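writing this on my phone so excuse typos. first protein, seq and then structure
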Amino acid sequence: MAGKTLWRSQTVYVVDYLFCYCVLGMWYVRQSVYTDFLPCHSGGGRRPLIPLSQSLLLNNYPPAKRSVALSLWAMTVIVAPICGPILGGWISDNYHWGWIFFINVPIGIVVILLSLQTIRGRETKITRQPIDIVGLVSLVIGIGCLQVMLDRGKELDWFSSNEIITLTVLSVVALLVLLIWELTDDHPIVDLSLFRSRNFTIGCVSISLAYMLYFGTIVLLPQLLQEVFGYTATWAGLASAPVGILPVILSPIIGRFAHKLDMRMLVTFSFIMYAVCFYWRAYTFEPAMNFAASAWPQFIQGFAVACFFMPLTTITLSGLPPERMAAASSLSNFLRTLAGSIGTSITTTLWSDRESLHHSQLTESINPYNPNAQQMYQKLENMGMTHQQASGYLAQQITNQGLIISANEIFWAAGGIFILLLVTIWFARPPFGSSGKASDGGGH
């Protein structure tokens, strides 16, 4: 992550091989005690692929073509929202969820073979640097404990659990040690001096917070469709997938004309479209909603996604010398991924907690003194239900209503935060393209 050492192209082969090995292992041992061990190593192989591919593009393309390269890179990254939900849902519905791991292996092998052909002979210069052992250990402990805490927090009722409290304390202490150590070490594993750049700081904050909101709602939507509306995993995937259609079409076009555009305008448009789609979804989500009502906001949200990754990445990396691109790309992608994990935990926890609140409030209206409730009981009993069956039916309807209301509250809040983020991005200073560096005076 430090970026002091420019990795050889062979690093791509290593991390890709590690990823393939671990997902294959997870397929074989998906019912064993190793299912927690192998995903950790899979993450170790998967996480470097994005910053590695990004830094390779930036270092191998001339400055005039970097916007196009980043757009094509973003387009391939965005394909996941199209294929992932549909393919994963279809496999889960028709076979076994373990096969989801297995399909990564042939794809990984193809990537290794293509990489051998395309980046052979492009090894970069290696600068030997001392390994920051203290920083590395602090980073692993701090982020590891944080990730486990986020994953298990909801299951263990958060801070009512001693395990969660212990993980939180360990994470905070380790990250504080990391922060203090990295500010004073001569060869830090995390190059915090990057935050002296105004554009890098603003870009990291904007892309991390925006991705936290985006990813949290992406996780929420399929769960809502399956739990409330009875969608299968396949149909939930089909309803979520349209978000990736427009970015695939628009990303090359945006990259082609990026040098003529102000990146802040593109990001502003993206955040406005995110807010519009979240408000639209919050307004239309109701028990009688059909498939189109869930799919159309996802499709229109594609405009926001298309103007999200490439412009924000360009702003984040603008003004940095080539030798710092790898460090900047790694750190910004790390923070974005971490924000996505935090967003998932916050979203699912809020959804559950707010559902409990709304369920309690709605249940108060079901009493012998409410004529509407008695009328509903009478109607259900006339349909052949017993009083107990009618009570169970109404309880399920109340649960569904609580889930919908709490999800809509999250959508409303996410839309509002995107509007607030509009202000942040305008503190970045141009130029953002390849013609020059951002003003250093504004970066410190």
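second protein below, same order as before
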Amino acid sequence: MKNTDGTSRRQQFKAYFYRAGWLALDCWRHFKLRIILIVILSWLGITSATAIFGGLIFYIRSLESNSTPNLFGIEWQLNSPSLLTLFTLGMMLLGILSAVLLYWVDWLIAHLAIAYQKHASYRLFRIASDPRYFGWQRLVDGPPTDAMQLFFSTTRGTSIALRRMMGGILPGITFIVATVFLVKTSPGLTALLIPLILVYFIPLYQSNQWATQKQMAYSQIGRKARKGVAQALDLAVGTSLPPERKLEEARQSIEAPEYTEASVLFFARKLVNSRIQMVNGIFFVCCLVGLFTFFAIATFKGTRRWSDLLIYLFALRSAFVGLRQITTVFGKLSRLLPIYRQYVDFAIQAERYCQQRRRSPRLNQPLPQVLWIHASEQVFPDTLDTLKLHPGDQVWAIVTSEPDFSMLQAIAARLEEVIPDEADLISKSAFLTEAVLEPHPDGLNLPLQVIERQWQDPEVQPLREYFQQKERLQELFPDPHSDGAHSDGRLLSLETCFLLNVWSVAQACQILWIDVRILFKLDSDFVTAFLSAQPTRYVFLVTDDPAKALKRGTLKQSRQTLAGVLVFGNQGLAAGGDVEWLKTHVKLVQAYLEQQQEEAKMLFAALEDEEMDDDDDE
């Protein structure tokens, strides 16, 4: 058991530094000039402050020894009022310069964090929009739109983590400068402090591990606690149960072990800074006692002066402050890890997926003549293990949330995972959402020409018969010498708009993914004609309301010719069957969808709570 815990801790430690390192390198790749400027200004600011201290030591030592320093061939009388005034002004200017430079460093770091947040947001927009990333939805659980919104919310926490990381540059330089000064002042004594510093890092490492573990534990147990309270709250405000029953449910949810444990973990993880300060305090006291003993003995022997102790203590204090601030940065990054890891992990996976997809040989391979879909999950009774699809088949895909463009892509990506032939579905698909019902007058000429060229093809016969029966050929092919309907899209029927917007897109693909809400707005005869005009394409009709799809007359013909039904959960394909199976288990399917929605809601709520909790890290 101990070995397992040790391995788990080492893995967490590696994951922590891997994500923090990736974030630092990503920032360096895109903002290296800003980072270089921050380092240079930090160095100048610390050097200016150190010059003040060095100048004071030099001046005091010279006065104590009554020596007259010779600089640039000139002897300087340090006890003269004019030189004292000049020295004071010089120290003041160095102090002002140091303060201005260090403020400028903070200003640059803040604006670097803002710039990186914008960069991270743009990266997410690119992943969501760029065709090279199509299929990114397979990387997330739950509705992809909600997941992407969550990633956008974590960009703020990521920028805060980056700001904390960049804030470690200044104390890092302070520590280096002070350490160099310590070595110059007393190399032997400084060498004796090295073992103590190595011992100091042991509890520091444990404190950061402790913070990360508490944060992870809170993320898990807090989700359960919030779910119990949410259920009790629903009973309290949404039902007519007796007050005693409501209060009893509320008491049980609040007194539940997970609620108490979540509350303890919430505040316990905030003690990481206190633990680090405690370790720092003990370390500094040990150093102080050792130094005092060393200098007391050396002073009694006449080899050191008490002023040497004060000088060494000042340098040690500066090094210690820098080291303490560095350890605080590590503590803050440990606490922020559950927030910025969401963005970092997704960005890494998305880039890796894009590269794998670009190099995949199946991109240029045609679809197999038969698609075999294997549903390995057995969530429902009496499901089909395998579904066999041919071109021209219609399939219903039932999903957990509204089938927008991203959800349609998510289904295609998830379906690729259960097709043994490793077929590429996304690049050969057209995703039709409600936007296809909107008229686009500027883009109607090209699809109209495509329809005219193919109007006499056999596969278009159902549509040709529909427009002839409805006497709408004039609407589809207006007189070019008159004020055609196509000059103003508002005069077009929804059916004509749909056909003009979709036809050229459909001709270029082998798979159609259609949001059924579109079809519900169209004439049922047109829907039947359009679906019948796709004999060479796989057609997936996507809905989040199977009960409604079973009742609507628009899909009557589709129900009769349906090749199968696929049910998708948050993690992918959950079940497969035929239309009769769906009719028998529609209530069970509906309950499953609601359960998946609730689980996704709780997951995203837990992660959003972590994002909100970073406010006190400022």
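The mean pLDDT is 80. thats all i got for now
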